[in-house]
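Reopening this one. Same input as before:
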Amino acid sequence: MTVVSSDGKEVVFETPPERIVVYDGAAVEMLFAIGEGDRIVGTHSYVTYPPETAEITKVGDAFNMDIEAIVALEPDLVYVFYDRFNADLERAGLKVLYIKSLSHGFTEVADQIRMWGAITGETEEAEHVAGEFDDRVHDIEHRMEEVEQTWTVYSHGFDWWTPGRNTLVNDVFELLKLENVADFEGYQQINPEIIIANEPDIIMADSVESVTENPVLSTLHMVEDPDHIEHHIFVMSEGNSFSVAGPRFIDAVEEFAAWVYPEVFGGDGHSH
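Same output, byte for byte:
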């Protein structure tokens, strides 16, 4: 089979690769999800899921790569999500597949799962995992057809970094008919005055305290109403995350959906 990389190169697979260095947390999760995690011989130090990855050799962090350590692992494929080291890897005689990390369009996760099924030869299990992902997205889309009430939302990050248009998180907002107060492209630092002026109905944050104890956000009506604050600030449960566009991404979408629209998805959240 042939896969076209993000820089337009055709990467041909005559047989499934047996030893893969996977420099991408989402791809690691996909391979484990389809039962092919034992092919992974190396990854980067930020990869922590699934727990089995603790035993996999780490060959750098997410943005620094130890080429010599990778060569020593004798991989027959190196998969990367950015192209900074592609030339170095190829000069070392390694086969490289570069697929740019998903920055938006999270529904494409299913397509990438199918790609790994084709590369490894595990097409049946890959189709099962990808099909389930697709089905769960479609279920949300179907349920959202009856929703008319919408709210504004702000995702509160460190030092005011927040996702705008064409980001994975904003994809989720659009799916759930939420209006993002961050009206710009990609991830940027938002001016706090924009948040105050827009008075978001919902804030997504790492903790309630990160909002209520922030002196800038303390003037928001939601913060001034402590009896109902939990219905305005969404904190993801441990284990779920929008940061990795892998098979578990849909778990986070479903959790957020149930919180925003408990009457539609079941849950105890915002609209109560």
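So the earlier flakiness isn't reproducible anymore. For the record, The chain has ten helices and 15 strands.
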